[in-house]
Amino acid sequence: MLSQDELKERVVPLMKKQGALYAKKLNVLARKAIAGESIRTITDSGLETVNEAEEGDFIVTNKTSAGESYILKPDVFQEKYRLKRTGEGGMDEYEARGKAVALELTKKMLAQLGLPDHFYFEAPWKEPMKACAGDFLAAPPDFSEVYRIGRKEFFETYSKAE
């Protein structure tokens, strides 16, 4: 399994040269997390990763066909989302404002990176994350971390930034 630093060392130079800037186009549902709450992120291709919430974190649920949920730190959440509508049952709707630089993991790209068609790496929250040919690797514009977005979820969620 590649560490987050090893993955960034391999991927970020290629992201800077060949990646494209994307904007999140879908609103999300979100709520404050309960400290210690465990979230399993399940995409169309199966279990992506597991993460445990800390005090102040947010649970975010994408409005995709998989409805995958994940955890964000409060500062990241506030930067990437703006309240649109208060909801029922504790889930409010937020407008996405975040952008990401992304790179498709084609077979050619995987070969360039020296990676197999399926591989695991350490997610920014220190848990294993699986990536496969056809998925996307994404990073915030400052390239501070790299994470995986499943192919189907990527196209449901992002569009090229203008």
- The H/E string reads HEEEEEEHEEEHEEEEHE
Mean pLDDT: 95
Report the sheet-strand fraction.
Answer: 35-45%
Helix amount, in percent?
10-25%
Q: Outline the low-pLDDT stretches.
A: none
- CA radius of gyration: 15 Å
Query: Structural class of the secondary elements?
Result: alpha+beta
- Count the E strands: 14
Note the overall shape: globular
Q: How many strands, which pairing sense, and closed or not: the largest β-sheet? A: 5 strands, antiparallel
The neighbouring-strand order within the major sheet is 13-12-9-1-14
Domain module count: 2
Number of H- or I-type helical stretches: 4
Distance between the termini: 35 Å
